[in-house]
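Batch job 17 of 40 flagged for manual review because the log was empty.
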Amino acid sequence: MKNRKILSLVAVSTLMLLNGCGSSDSDGSTTPVAGTELPLEVRAAIDGPTSALSQELANALSFMGNEERLAYDVYNYLYAKFGTQQFTNIATKSEYKHISAVQQLVQKYKLDDTIDFTNVDLPSLGYINAPIESMQAGVYDISAIQALYDDLTVQGSESEIDALKVGCTVEVVDITDLDREIAIAEDENATDIVTVFNFLRDGSYNHYWAFDKALKNQGMIDGCCTWSELCHPEYPQNEQGMGKGHR
């Protein structure tokens, strides 16, 4: 568990150092659109049998819940600043679903109090049963996520290009963390978590390519690869060769 926390902090801190801190309240929050129901395979995984979780994997639920909220909050904040459509599309059509999926996994495993989250190092927000719309934007109970939000909202406020760069950054951080958590879940045969986290990662691949396309439309011919630390041509693309902007 200690190694996992170190790796997570390294993944987050590395990109923070490469980018550029501040906070936000609910500025830019929007009402989710219709169609935010979860796919059938994700629903089945959440409703299926529980797995025996190590402390490391239990903490992954807490960490990813915070990280998916960060993406939702950052994108709503940047949409309010610049009105760039990708931000509101991804936040309301996809990140909302991601938060819901992780929240329902947390509910599944916390029902009988058999797990605890030892990586919560700020006052607990107690959002296990809270509606997503009532969650305070820009406030988290894991310090690494809080610091990343503060950094990215300031960096993304500089210009629309900087905002889109933040979109690439959020997705690279998310995919990096999900790669690690999925490997842990596979090792522990936690098939429900593997299914849900794969759903999150597939969405992040699409979002990365949506931001890449938006940057190219702004004249940045290399898209996310304008910045070497954000360049991931190996990420899967859909049949149109780009991200859909939602999943």
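Reviewer: the log was empty due to a logging misconfiguration, but the result itself is present. The helical segments are 2-19, 40-47, 55-82, 85-110, 143-156, 160-187, 191-217. Unflagging and moving on to job 18.
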